[in-house]
Write the structure tokens for this entry.
Amino acid sequence: MNAHRSPGYPDHPGFESLFLSPAQAQALLRLVESAPSVRRRAHFFMWLQGHVQVLLPHLLVVCGAYSRHRRQLDFDVFNTVVLPPALMGQLSGAQSPLMAALARHWIEGDGQATVLTMPGAAQAGAGEGWDDLQRMGVGHLAVHGVSRPERRHEIESLFVLAGRGGDSLHNVLQTLDLLIPHLHITYLRMLGLERELTAPAASASPPVSETRISGVTARERQILHLVREGMSNHEIGGTLAISPLTVKNHVQKILRKLGASNRAQAVAMALQSRLITSNGAEFDRGAPGGFASGIAATDPEQA
């Protein structure tokens, strides 16, 4: 296994400027513009497969974030190919030798973008998983992350993109340097929003009374579902064929009825009181005042 690292700064003797094609430049612009709308894992996956895929082609992406509660890196795998269960365990396991080896290579490289190429030879000392990656066509692993200032070993986030190989390693390294701030901010913000929306209502919040629950209309429940999906007032209005101002008025009524201080809290209280549920079933968005017969109102929404 050979490791290639980015020089990391423009005045380094080995530094070369990165050339972006028109399509890549457009993808970079769209990536930056669309990042604030990434609020759920499904959004993040589509963001990766759209703009990030154009800039840095990959078969799968492993994203890790430090959990202060568990004092370890927790990993998510976003893949477009079927992975063997054992490999999935190696990629998503906080204590797996494979992920530990990748983190170690990045730290030893002084936190610079790193590409690990995978020839046919066995990967000595790196644990399981390498052979499975090679069999599915992975030619290199691009690794980069963010750690605490002056404490390189204290990783805040780590990203691994598995490519087929054949790409210019210089371009991979430079592109990864370009993308890492956006990957870091977008992924961590998405995790924070998901925690906020799925956590029980704060203990300081009063329980939602039956009177309040019964006062929420079917239309307001529809809007709660779309809020939980991460839609803006304008997007909700387009979905339900009503004006954004009408949506805003509905949201204000929902907040008053539930005694919530913001949209996220309203969604959490609605989940707790079973006004909406979280199994992802679709409701009938074409019905002006209710849900499709026999289908629970369970769209994942968000504030």
User: Anything to note?
Assistant: The beta strands are 2-5, 60-67, 72-79, 114-117, 140-148, 151-163. The two ends are 45 Å apart (CA to CA). The domain at 2-198 is CATH 3.30.450.80 (Beta-Lactamase).
